[in-house]
Amino acid sequence: MTGEFHKGQYAVVTGAYWAFTLTDGALRMLVLLFLHDLGRSPLEIAGLFLFYEFFGIVTNLAGGALGARFGLRLTLLLGLLLQGGALAGLATQATALSLPLVMGLQALSGIAKDLTKMSAKSYIKFLVAAGDQGGLMRIVAWLTGSKNTLKGAGFFLGGLLLQTFGFATACWSMAAGIALAWLVSVVVLPAAAGKAKTVGKPREWFAHDRRVLWLSISRCALFAARDAWFVIALPLFLAVQWQWSHAQVGAFMAVWVMGYGVIQALAPSWLGSPKAFAEGDAKQGVRRAGALVLWTVALWVPLVALARLTDPTPPQVVLGLGGFALIFATCSALHSYLILAYASGERVSQQVGAYYAANASGRLLGTLLSGVLVHLALGPAEGLRWTLWGASLLVGIAALAGWPLHREERAQAASASPSELQQDGNLPRS
Description:
By secondary structure, the chain is mainly alpha-helical. It has one domain: MFS general substrate transporter like domains (Growth Hormone, Chain: A, Up-down Bundle), CATH 1.20.1250.20. Helices cover 82% and strands 0% of the residues. It has helices at 7-37, 42-70, 72-92, 99-127, 133-164, 167-188, 202-207, 210-230, 233-241, 246-266, 268-271, 282-298, 300-307, 314-342, 348-376, 380-416, 418-423. The longest helix is centred in the C-terminal third of the chain and has 37 residues, at 380-416. The two termini are 37 Å apart. The relative contact order is 0.16.
């Protein structure tokens, strides 16, 4: 599918991704707050999400190969089916939830999430006209930004449903929504998109373009930096330190993620005009990589500012997290565009899957760090502060991984148009 934009298929892929994301955000908040009410420790709660993220790593690698072998429609439908099964399982066992059972169903949901994400993101590469880099960036930014906005809405929905209707009813209602998205996808989407003649070995997915490798390393550290404070430390800080209700915690997390999603969708407007991403301009790849490094380094400002506060007030937290959202969303928008710009040939789903395996690795690392630091800290305020310092260290790693990416871009640009590159004296050097 190349040559023109397939609006109907894009609408179905986006709708399915939205439906999944809404339930995923709600389920995460449901499980976190439900287990906190049962008296589970921060480390035990983090352990549940670790299982979820570990299976995300495995799923992205296996799902990329599965999508290349059988097509992206199969992996998308399988992701939706597994999420519906996880929600139904939680609903039927709501009165007798044990930690191993929740861990198993969370693992199922983690598999579903990454199958759905890998499929939806890879699908975009086949739905946008070949060579339309500006269109690709706008559409990827919109898809990812709207997804994060709905994830934020899911956080609020999860807290509200738990407080209003209870755990089982919340899970059943979300399972019904997923079933509807599955049925529409079965009817509309073609089976052939994303199929490759050969699957190849995992090392070949990075060997084709080393920029994918460095971008994946940077992505891993970047999302570890976010989840180090976001997954466990922040919601428990709000619930314990400030004595907020479930709905209040869910609403605050929702507003942050929704704002982050809106910023991500708008990021192309300040990252550069669509023409700036036109294929064939040798300078643009270097500039994109340089911009990614600079935006990543800028994340230190809100993180360090918040980490230096011993007893942060609501206005300080809102201001700091707002600054982080602006910068992080811009970095993430660049990442999401670049992986699809770099992925090429028949193995798009495998390269995208390997990249999102690195993303899941980062979330696992960040979740583990969050649980450990909050568990060791003397209180929720101290736990939040420790995780913010840990996030600052991870941001440094993400920025360092951007320099080899920048060097690879310079090498590719030099081989494509050496005279043009040499004439630009303003380009940063690696």
